[in-house]
Amino acid sequence: MHDFSVEAMGLVVREHRQALGPPMTQEELAKRADYGKGGAVSISRIERGLISPGEHRLAAIALALQLTPAQLKQEAEERTTSLARQRGQRPVKLRDQVAETKRRHAEINEKAAERSKITQEYGEAFNRVHDVVRDNFFMRFVELAESISGAPGPERPSEAEVENTGEAPAAIRIEAMSAGIANAIRGAATGGAAGVAVGGAAAYGAFTAAALFGTASTGAAISTLSGVAATNAALALLGGGTLAAGGAGMAGGILLLTGMVAAPAAALAAAGFYILRQRRNKKEEERLRTEVEAAEAALNQSQQGFDAMIDVLDRATAIMEYVEVHGTHALEKWRASLPPEPRGWESLEHEGQERYQEFLTVAGCFLATSLINVPALLTATPDDLRDLDKAIDETLGYADKTIKATV
Q: Tell me: the pLDDT tens digits for 57-66?
């Protein structure tokens, strides 16, 4: 992970943007760095030290600023050291110390509030498009697939393939999910309870469970199938959120992640009494400064996990939006080309059979993207976070590439 502070990176980006001749606006930088609609807001948040761009975004920003990613990171690291040195120099007079502590207290409160706002914004954007794709692509494909008798399932990767790699490659995980979906479709077509007849949300929950738990018989294998520890909690996060009435899906769990600011909030609450006092003695000032520094440290410690979470949500939402536009259109074209019911596998002919298998793969990519255990990013140690981030990046990259090559 990176060795620079989010504040330092923001300052460096802003300075380079403004130093160009003529100065580049935030909107221009967002466009050149391939941010979508409203990208200027993301650039503003980066420059204000609220979020730090992921590796792919950072590379695009560096290119737009006529720098290499290494140069941008190096400058941010140097600025981080400089800022730490400045903050280590405390004012001499008590009144100046009080003023500085109040300022830092206000900054932490603002950052915590902004984090909650950003989390909700990204979470709601993900949920909206996720639910549309669930209803208009995934469950519609399931309904069509159930009407085709004799459809073969994709070959399921062996448990040895999955377990021997420890954390299975994205291709194997998604292949396993597609196999689980196919098995659930066949079961529903023969009268199983997983079909759309039981209702969209409940059926989706059944297919999600089949994709995770129907693809392996051992707990060790199951844990590799979603990319980052698809435990019962991860399934419950989705099944108890988007899938149930009034739920909020993966981002529903994310909206509960106020734990990411719980430590600073507690410290700030304890410090609040002293902040309100107009006068403080030296002992009170020392106590308040210690509590504010603890809150600041807690917020900083969770910064990399928070940045990773936002980056994952942003990329996952973009993948979902692509399926929303292109996947649903391709599925409708395939539906129109199908022979009338009752229809068997052979009646689809070669092209129709290929499209079936392709849509099954896209469905697996969709579930793999949906089931990423985002909350784990905020509670992981730095070493674990590095591994999680790598596994998630692999899953999102494979899903994005595969979906775009298919629909």
A: 899 999 999 9
Long-range Cβ pairs for the range 241-248 (8 Å, 24+): 242/127, 242/130, 242/131, 242/134, 242/201, 243/201, 243/202, 243/204, 243/205, 243/208, 244/201, 244/205, 245/201, 248/123, 248/127
Whether 268 maps to a domain, the answer reads no
Task: Give the pLDDT confidence of 245-270 residue by residue, as tens digits.
Answer: 333 344 444 433 443 444 455 555 55
Q: Are residues 190 and 59 in the same domain?
A: no
**58 and 170 inside one domain:** no
Rounded Cα distance between 119 and 281, Å, is: 38
**148 forms bridges with which residues in the sheet?**
343
pLDDT number for residue 232:
34
Name the region of 158 (left: φ>0; alpha: ψ -120 to 50; beta: rest). beta
Is residue 28 assigned to a domain? yes
- In terms of domains, do 45 and 120 share one? no
Of the chain, the percentage scoring pLDDT greater than 90 comes to 32
Residue 269 lies in a domain: no
Q: Residue 305 and residue 75: Cα distance in Å, rounded?
A: 22
The range of the structural domain enclosing residue 20 comes to 1-89
Are 167 and 65 part of one and the same domain?
no
